[in-house]
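Give me structure tokens for this 533-residue protein.
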Amino acid sequence: MNVPTVEDNNDTLSTMPSDMRVGIAAFLHESNTFLSVPTTLDHFRSTSWTEGVAVRDRWGGALHEIGGLLDGSDAEGLQAIPLLATYAVPGGTLSSKAFDAIAGRITSLVQEAMPLDGMLVALHGATVAANYPDADGEILRRVRSVLGPDVPLIVTLDLHANISHRMADNCDALVCYRSNPHLDQRERGLEAARLMARTLRREVRPVQALETPPWVIPIDRQYTREEPASLLYAAAEDASRSPGILSASVAMGFYYADVEEMGASFVAVADGDAAIARRTARQMAERAWNRREEFQSRLVSPAEAVRYAAGAQRTPVALFDVGDNVGGGSPGDSTILLEELRRQGVPNYLVVLYDPAAVARCLEAGVGYEVSIPVGAKTDTLHGHPVLARGKVRVISDGAFVEHEVRHGGWGKNDQGLTAVIETADEGSIVLTSRRMAPMSLQQILSVGRQPQYKRAIVVKGVVAPRAAYEPVCPEILLVDTPGVTAGNPARFTYQHRRRPLYPLEEEAEFEPAEGRPPTSRTASSELESPGR
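Here you go.
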């Protein structure tokens, strides 16, 4: 076999055959089962869907984990075989038709690409389909069934994954983001590619263990730059540097998905030593569990938040709309905070609302003309009521923008659809979009000519993810306890499928480590005949 040569004389590639073919696929969606609007196949196709060489064209060099998987494979001398990469904005449960189409296409492409020496897959970890609540686990089961038990399969996951044992059983290693906001996605893709290369060179043999304590971590306590969440990830970093450990991950879970595996989880990947993997995962889980009381939610009411913004000396004040967190699958059209700003007479605010109908009305009126139209709260009755917007249409934009900095999501190219801006008599800026867009980038409003630094209050429809974008211009950030399908308190939701008990929903919950469950390895990891739940 030929041996690849590299300019930097990287000796680690000296034993890597040049024909080691590694498939790369990505299927990413964060599914909020409490949102009434289902996610369809069109949501994926109209957002981002690439196959074959188009995957490299779209994602090569990107700040996303897909870019890391591609570029990391190249750097390690692997022959990357891009198959399919698709994602959709977080939203409701996937329709059965959407899941079957995507899963079927991925499975078919893997089959066509065989024989493969390895497989790298980017998943979210909190994807729910109408026919498969553990959609990520089902995808991995199907891919594993094509690969067979001996081909290494390594997976990257979002920090908000609800990791199931089915997911862990059907792959060799799970590698989760370690930053929220998600600023390390590319790094995790590179990490997964390096681990794949070492596995194929037979330098290491991944064996992983999963611990899932009965614990729900409030969303507002998931900021990894602050305690107590930072302590979880410091422990994971320490664990990853321990002798015999190849990777260590913490997933804080996604409690807007009503599934059995909902909650926090801890993963340790060891080099061939099942006992080390089990012990490390258990230690991370136990240490975190012992600090669970420190993860108490700290939110303020809409009235308190707006009152503070009205009198703040340092502006703008960012009002993070927790209940309408688009990155968590909310509709993006809540008017709760807009109504409160108006009720208290606070001028000079900015809010972004998803409202295609209102955009169409502005387009009909034209730039420079006055409109008086109801905006927002069109999806359901959980997120307020439509508010009458009276003002002048200042901007009509195609809604496309590019983010060049490292930001949550790592998408780079963004499209919020046809966008209109109404300026009201009280100096309010109402940005109306025809596509739902999580506020990961300040370019979302800069691209339509709004200067956020001159506003008194900005309504931001997120919790942690927008911090990287908004902290540089907003000296004050308040997390607001608004109602909606991403409300901060999990006790507001009626669950049908989750485990019980779960702390803090049931304070009597106790953590018993998975004593009898063996870690997984390439030789005994798959459940090829396992049906969907």
